[in-house]
Design a protein that fits this description.
Layout: E1 5-10, E2 15-21, H1 28-38, H2 46-55, E3 61-65, E4 68-78, E5 81-92, H3 101-113, E6 117-123, H4 127-139, E7 143-150, E8 164-170
Parallel strand pairs: 5-6
Antiparallel strand pairs: 1-2, 2-3, 3-4, 4-5, 6-8, 7-8
């Protein structure tokens, strides 16, 4: 089942229509561009984003303005916990940041999938993502637990990575509390 929701986004001088929808196969290149331009995400190959748009469209949301992808959330249902969506990446084009699009994409993801739990991993220094997921949990009146998940021992010595903290947001209400 796919859904398309529209919401009006106020900008400085105009009101712009934002459409939240599942990705089409043709959105992979635009998703890669948004990820690349964010300069914050671990950038995957264009092939990976295109494959994600095909194989995980039910748990991925793109935000579109005037036919252009300006943001996305990629995720998947955890095989052992189908009520849980693991959010892989969240990105919003620089020109559209600060308008709540990322949280609205998460809202759309939860509404579309009917899940009650969202997980993601965030490095300790990524305060923007921490704020996003805290805002999301508050918005839904949900529990928000943070625990270590991946540490340096989980990554190869010749390809070190920052430790990743698991953010588990559970008890998500179908309707936001505010």
């Amino acid at each position: 089942m796919t859904s398309t929701r529209q919401t009006t986004l106020p900008t400085e001088d105009i009101r712009t229509q934002i459409t939240f929808r599942p990705p089409a196969l043709t959105d992979g290149a635009a998703m890669w561009r948004v990820a690349r331009d964010s300069a914050r995400l671990d950038l995957n190959s264009p092939y990976a984003y295109t494959l994600w748009a095909r194989d995980f469209a039910d748990t991925t949301v793109v935000a579109e303005v005037d036919g252009e992808v300006v943001g996305f959330v990629t995720g998947y249902r955890r095989p052992t916990e189908p009520e849980t969506v693991m959010v892989w990446q969240v990105a919003v084009d620089d020109n559209f940041r600060g308008h709540g699009i990322a949280r609205r994409m998460l809202d759309e993801l939860v509404a579309r999938t009917g899940t009650t739990t969202v997980e993601t991993t965030i490095t300790d220094d990524n305060q923007a993502s921490q704020a996003l997921f805290t805002s999301f949990s508050d918005h839904h009146g949900a529990d928000h637990e943070v625990t270590p998940l991946f540490t340096s021992v989980h990554f190869p010595a010749d390809a070190p990575a920052e430790p990743e903290l698991l953010h588990r947001i559970s008890g998500i209400s179908a309707q936001p509390v505010y």
